[in-house]
Design a protein that fits this description.
With 286 residues, the protein is of the alpha/beta class. Helix content is 35%, strand content 13%. It has two domains: 2-116, no CATH class; 125-285, Rossmann fold (3-Layer(aba) Sandwich), CATH 3.40.50. The protein has helices at residues 2-14, 46-49, 62-69, 84-88, 110-116, 125-137, 147-151, 153-158, 164-177, 191-197, 215-224, 234-241, and strands spanning 19-20, 43-44, 74-77, 94-97, 140-144, 183-188, 203-207, 227-229, 250-253, 273-275. This is Glycosyl transferase family 11.
């Protein structure tokens, strides 16, 4: 979604089309190309890319690669934070290579991105009941991500840990700073653990019925909540950013990554509330 948003904003700046290189999903066991869930019919650059070999992460001599394959485009690789001035210098014919996980890359076209990423698929009766409850109760979304963050050694070393204290402190902050009685709607890839361990200052419900390809329904429900407590997860980032309430308060972890240098480019917008995490928290304690 971040990559699409950055590409869409670039295309709007130059009044050009956008094509998506979705070839990496062919070998991705965890993720699917899912933009069709938003009613989008994006053009995948299949025909154009047939004459291009895939751009690989370790490629260092891209100018030589372009000459060899006759590609007349500007190659822009995200190696770190890219300033607004440098973003403005990206031309109309460009190949964006990176994650682009920061609002700065599309903030000037935020309204168009929101419209493009509206979920338009029909909602089923079960999720409609949850949606009605969320709107009637002015719910606060809480997203807990565990799975690969607690079992994968690479992710454990890369990402900061949103420990239980983070969720309690975030919930207490909102309970003290909103006018309505707090009602929490918890979304998690481990709902059983969340229900057994989260102790929130108010009534809470745990959404556990949307799994697999139904993840889009969790995103729909999250974005309908009045306020948000996110994990350091792009899924909950988008659930909060796409929120329907213009006066929403979004609480996020103060650190996205463990490494301080890498964390300089974390995706948390400056107007979101940052709650500190426990130093060197053990992921297994989540």
């Amino acid at each position: 979604m971040f990559q699409f948003a950055a590409g869409l904003a670039l295309s709007l700046r130059h009044d050009t089309g956008i094509e998506l290189d979705a070839r990496s999903f062919e070998r991705d066991r965890l993720r699917k190309f899912s933009l069709f869930n938003f009613g989008l019919r994006p053009t995948t650059a299949t025909e154009t890319l047939k004459k291009w070999p895939p751009v690989r992460r370790g490629l260092v001599n891209f100018p030589w690669w372009k000459i060899r394959h006759g590609i007349g485009v500007q190659y822009v690789r995200e190696r770190g934070p890219i300033s607004q001035e440098n973003i403005a210098q990206i031309g109309p014919s460009a190949y964006l290579h990176g994650y682009w996980q920061n609002e700065r890359y599309f903030a000037d076209h935020a309204s168009e991105v929101r419209r493009a990423l509206r979920i338009v698929s029909p909602i089923d009766p079960t999720n409609q009941k949850w949606l009605d409850r969320i709107r009637d109760r002015a719910a606060i979304s809480v997203h807990v991500r565990r799975s690969d963050y607690t079992t994968d050694a690479v992710n454990q070393n890369l990402y900061a840990t949103c420990d239980l204290n983070y969720y309690v402190n975030s919930a207490e902050y909102l309970a003290e700073n909103i006018s309505s009685k707090p009602y929490f709607m918890v979304f998690s890839d481990d709902p059983e653990w969340s229900a057994a361990n989260l102790r929130l200052p108010g009534e809470a419900d745990f959404v556990a019925h949307n799994s697999g390809d139904a993840f889009i329904e969790d995103l729909r429900l999250m974005s309908a909540c009045r306020h948000h407590i996110i994990a350091n997860s792009t899924f909950s980032w988008w659930g909060a950013w796409l929120g329907e309430n213009p006066d929403r308060t979004i609480v996020a972890p103060a650190n996205w990554y463990r490494d301080a240098v890498r964390d300089l480019n974390n995706p948390i917008p400056p107007n979101w509330i940052r709650i500190p995490l426990m130093a060197n928290a053990d992921a297994a304690s989540m």
